[in-house]
Amino acid sequence: MIALATLTGPAPRAGVVAVAALVAIVLLVSGGGRVRICAAAMLAALVLAPVLLLADIWNSSQLQFVHRHPLYAVVGAVFALAVLAVVAVLMRKKPRAFVLLAVLALPFRVPISTGGNTSNLLVPLYFVVAAGALAWLVPALITGRSGESGPPDPRVGRDRGTEPPLLAWVDRLLALFIVLYGLQAIYSTSRGTPGGFGVALQNMAFFYVPFALLYRLLREVRWTPGLLRGCLAITVGLALIFSVIGFGEYATKTIILNSKLVAANDLHTYFTVNSVFFDPDIFGRYLALTMILLGVTLLYPFPRREQTVAVGALAVLWACLILTLSRSSLGALLVGLAILAALRWRPSRALYVAVAVIAIGAAVVALTPTTFGLNQGLNGASSGRGGLVSGGLRLFGERPLQGWGSGSFVQEYRIHNPGAGELSASHTIPITIAAEQGVIGLIPYIALVVCALVCLVRGARGDPVRSAVAAAFGALVFHTMLYADFLEDPTTWALLGIGLALAADGRWAHANRQRRLASDTSAAPAGSVSASSAAS
Questions:
Q1: By the 8 A CB rule, do 484 and 425 touch?
Q2: pTM (2 decimals)?
Q3: Is there a contact between 481 and 430 (Cβ–Cβ < 8 Å)?
Q4: What is the pLDDT of residue 192?
């Protein structure tokens, strides 16, 4: 009780900064004799983040059972930890299980009330990440080595210093952004409305900590063609199942989740589906990214049978994407396909096609503006997002340097716009960061996006897997400009982790080929040097 009382004062703000620092250590420290440092930081973050969150919601209604029956709560916690330990041991024996289970758990969200708000949390993914982290860090703490057999099959002693410098800058910028987010949560207040520091704490505990661990583990994976195919098969299979559920919703005019969407469908002639996702835009994002990953099989010389299966799956996913009525997801799909085309062929050809598509679309909109809601004005056609953008820019103008504090956008927007009604986000990530963190947070965000895109695109031409990952990440960045959730979406961290690991592997493979060529050349007779060079 004394510890919990301490955590109700200024300690939580210091705790958020401490957790952010631990995440930075996890992202930056690797290789050689520093494995123990990374493992200790990982363990500390896994312990401290839930403690801070528990202190934040200790007096909330969802913990009434814990207050009334503490013994049951303790038994339940012990049981959960025991199951977690068993899964970690299994992952230690089967390293690929972590990757496949993480991809499987990626889209599943559970609605949970925290701090007066209902959040859709990725509880299955949290469990998988915690188990994978334990399987990695326990041997590292004991022996100072992660071990060849441990998940996620990391390269023992891998030193990030041997990677291309630009890849290391992605890790540094991620760490910088999270540390700044933690520091700027210190002056984020809670002024009688949901938001402010409570949101910043929840974002750190629910998103940045577990997703950073996921990213770190995926960065260490030895990605084989079989493992990549398994991940794609799981992703496409889930998307098809979700699409079938969406078709069922449309046929029966029944929504499984989100009572607000039920009310909105009752008010309009059209019907929007969301499958197992709370928001149709999040469902549309998942479908669009899956289509981009799958669509690469049609641009490269894959076997005819695989291409036929891909065409059938794409037709199903496209039909369901239309039913989501997610314009941001449709735009993200176009952006992703344009990136794929630019990586597969000459960028100029892709640009010509993009200009033609935009021209045709503009003509259609000009001919039938009512169909696209333009008769309601820009704010009405964008479902109120135009007003959110202008309001966010005004908040940024009032505090351009430091912003209003991490997690404060919704709170400050309601205070400055009393008649704005209910909202949960700005739906435009750069605007959110500008209003909450000012120029201090906006510059690292822009640098991170640019650096990540360059790392993913560079050297991806001719490589279907890297091209697909780069295109999916570009599409996701575009989607965050129109909806929300950048580093709050685990898909961002997963694509970055996989894409950067593949980029590093490509550079190592090239270096190994060069070393073999050099050794062969030095060992060969002088007259055969030119012949061996020509053959290589």
A1: yes
A2: 0.86
A3: yes
A4: 54
